[in-house]
Amino acid sequence: MKGDNPTPPRNDSLVSRNTVIEGDIRGAEGLTIEGTVKGHLHIDGRVWVAESGRVEADIEAKSVVVRGRVKGDVTAENELDIHPGGELYGLIRARLIHIREGAIFEGRSQMIRAAAVESEPAPEAATGNPSNADSLLSAQPDGVKG
Amino acid sequence: MGLFKKKLASSGPPPVVGSGPTGSGCHLGQTIAIVGKVTSQDPVVFSGQLNGEISVHNRLAVGHPARIEGIVSAESLTAAGQIKGQVTVAGSLHMEPSAAISGRVETAQLSVVQGAMLNGELKMSSRQREEPDP
User: Which helix (DSSP H) or strand (DSSP E) does residue A116 occupy?
Assistant: First the structure.
C-alpha cells in the first residue's frame, strides 16, 4: 500500500527498546523510538514510534508515525500517520492525518490549514488603536445588543 | 600526590565512538539535546547534549562533540566528548584525544590517550576482573 513506510529511516537517532528517557528532548534529526520516552519531544524532523515504543509525552515534529503507543498531545507540522496496531490518546494537530484500519485513536483532532503554517502578518488594527488590544480582550462590557 | 597523572593507553579498549548506530543499541545524534534522565540496558552511543543524568547498564560511548553536564554511570565508558560532573564506571573508562572530563570520576580501569583532558577528583575502585575464558 502506498505510503505504508514499514521501516524507519536508518540514519535516525534511535531510542532503543531497553532505553527510557524522561525529560525534554529536542533535535533536528529524525528520531525512532523503540523504548520509552516521557516528557516533551520537540523534533525538527520525523518521529517514528515503533511497535515497542511507549511515549507519554507531548510531541511536536515535522511528521509523526505511530506504530506503538502514544499518550499526549501530538502536533505534526506535516503528516501524522497512525498505523495498524498503533495507539494514540490525546489531542492531535496536523496538516494531514492518516488513521489506518486497526489503529486506535482516542481524543480530539485539529487540522492545520496550509495557510496557518505560514507566518501570517499581523492584521491591521481595525480601530486604528492597537493599544486597546488588551482592553478589548479583558473588558467586554455587558455584551449589550444594539 | 598527583594521584591521577595521565596513563598512556598502549592497549586500551577498542574505540566504539562513531557517528552511526551500533547494531540494536541506542544512538542519539549530534543535534539531540536532552534535559532530563536517560536510562538504558542497551549499548548507547551519545553524541548530543545532555543536562541531567545518563545511566547505562552496558557500554556507553560519548562521541565527539557530545557535551554532558550531570551524572554519568556506565558499565564501561569510551569518551570522545565533554563531560562535566560525576562519572562512575564499573569497568573501564577510556578517554580519546578529544575527550574532556572534569569533576568526580570513579572507575576500575582508566586509560587516557594523549590530548585528552582529565581534571578533578579520581577514585580507582577495585572490581573483580573477569577472567577470560580459556
Answer: helix A114-117
How far CA B70 is from CA of A19, A53, A133, B83, B84, in Å, comes to 18, 26, 45, 8, 6
**Residue that has been written with the C-alpha cell 527498546 in this structure:** A17
The answer to whether B34 contacts chain A (CB < 8 Å) is yes
ipTM: 0.80
Verify whether the Cβ–Cβ distance A21 to B36 is below 8 Å.
Answer: yes
pTM above 0.90, yes or no: no
At B43, list the grid cell.
549499548
Closest CA to B78 of B53, B52, B97: B97
Task: Return the higher-pLDDT residue of B6 and A80.
Answer: A80
Question: Got the DSSP string for B15-74?
Answer: P---SS--TTSEEE-TT-EEEEEEEESS-EEE-SEEEEEEEEEEEEEE-TT-EEEEEEEE
Q: B25 and chain A: CB distance < 8 Å anywhere?
A: yes
